[in-house]
Amino acid sequence: MSDSLPLRLVLASASPARRKSLQAAGIEPDVLVSGVDESLVVTDRAEELCLELARLKAQAVLTRLSPAAGQRTLVIGCDSVLAFDGEILGKPTDPADATRRWLRMRGRSGVLHSGHCLIDVVAGRRAEAVASTTVHFADVSDDEIAAYVATGEPLAVAGAFTIDGLGGAFVERIEGDAGTVVGLSMPLLRRLLAELNLQITDLWTKVAPGGQTVEPLGTVPS
């Protein structure tokens, strides 16, 4: 048997932005949607809420995995919420809700919290933490809000905005890691991997010309 094992990362999220963040950082994850009912967790603390949901998502996917022989599998669960004006804002319920939020948020700031839970399936070990970034919103006009809500983008994301899509034009600046706002902080993922005695480089992959195959660059001790 080889003295090293290929490392597999399973992303417990349907978020295209999280997957793209990993891919841009040289990591090609498998994706398995958790199906967790987010309404089951009730708390008035944004950090506690996003971390508990991240745990539930990772655990839900973990129970459905059958790790392959000769492979070390990790599961990463993430969840994001916006703390604004003493409230916790997840995804808007409908276009009217998204519009109301933007009328309140414009010209002001909030804190985007993203919980991360990383589980080493075989070892049964877990590392978790919350990353937080302050977001300063532009003083957008009523017409800009209406046009943005009409695209449907704000309905699919926590806080009703993105920085890596159409909503990026409506964010003046941030204080912290941009990846937190997207939903997955790469610097935090690196630190969580270190807690499991792994390196971010163990997850790097190389895509062949044409994107036909993915060749692992890193291996970890068996």
From TrEMBL:
<protein>
    <recommendedName>
        <fullName>Nucleoside triphosphate pyrophosphatase</fullName>
        <ecNumber>3.6.1.9</ecNumber>
    </recommendedName>
</protein>
<feature type="active site" description="Proton acceptor">
    <location>
        <position position="79"/>
    </location>
</feature>
<dbReference type="InterPro" id="IPR029001">
    <property type="entry name" value="ITPase-like_fam"/>
</dbReference>
<dbReference type="Pfam" id="PF02545">
    <property type="entry name" value="Maf"/>
</dbReference>
<comment type="similarity">
    <text>Belongs to the Maf family.</text>
</comment>
<keyword id="KW-0378">Hydrolase</keyword>
<keyword id="KW-0546">Nucleotide metabolism</keyword>
<dbReference type="InterPro" id="IPR003697">
    <property type="entry name" value="Maf-like"/>
</dbReference>
<keyword id="KW-0963">Cytoplasm</keyword>
<comment type="function">
    <text>Nucleoside triphosphate pyrophosphatase. May have a dual role in cell division arrest and in preventing the incorporation of modified nucleotides into cellular nucleic acids.</text>
</comment>
